[in-house]
Amino acid sequence: MAILTIEPVGNNAIASHDGCDTFVPATGAMPAECRVTLSRHRLVTIGFTDVNAPPQPVISRTPAGAVAVNQTIQFSGAGTTDDQDPQPLNYQWDFDNNGSVDSQALSPTYAYSSEGTYTVRLRVTDLQGAAGETTTSVVVTSANRPPVASFTYAPANPTVGQTVMFDASGSAG
Ligand SMILES: [Ca+2]
Ligand SMILES: [Ca+2]
Description:
The chain is mainly beta and 173 residues long. Helices cover 0% and strands 37% of the residues. The protein has a 4-stranded mixed β-sheet with strand order 6-11-10-8, with no helix packed on it. It has a 3-stranded antiparallel β-sheet with strand order 5-7-9, with no helix packed on it. A two-stranded antiparallel ribbon has the order 1-4.
């Protein structure tokens, strides 16, 4: 992003600068004509000032809701925007918010090995070193295992016509 600046030199005053003293190419249209009217024999400097806004990180993930222990989560920082798109950006993911970077991929995958609520931090840095951060939380629940069916019956060797009792209370799940 660049801003056009018009500055008087010394005590010189700018008589007028009709609507063209500031423009932002990234967000607005550059005026077709920039007319600066000066008092006679005045000096001004006309220049561009570079300003750089930090990236605005956006975290998305699939699945979006609570996940199970060891379930793979697909994260993505592709929704991140920067004022100088499409310049390359550096992505730093900290899936457990412990301060150590776990991935620098745009769209990494991750799985949590134990239950809990985790804070995921994404820091995105542009080529000029400006950085933006955002966080989201992930709830990890105990793994959902299929139930284990089992039963016992008595008597062990029933004869024809004999009533047999089944007991499935030993099932787990
Ligand atoms: Ca930027
Ligand atoms: Ca970490």
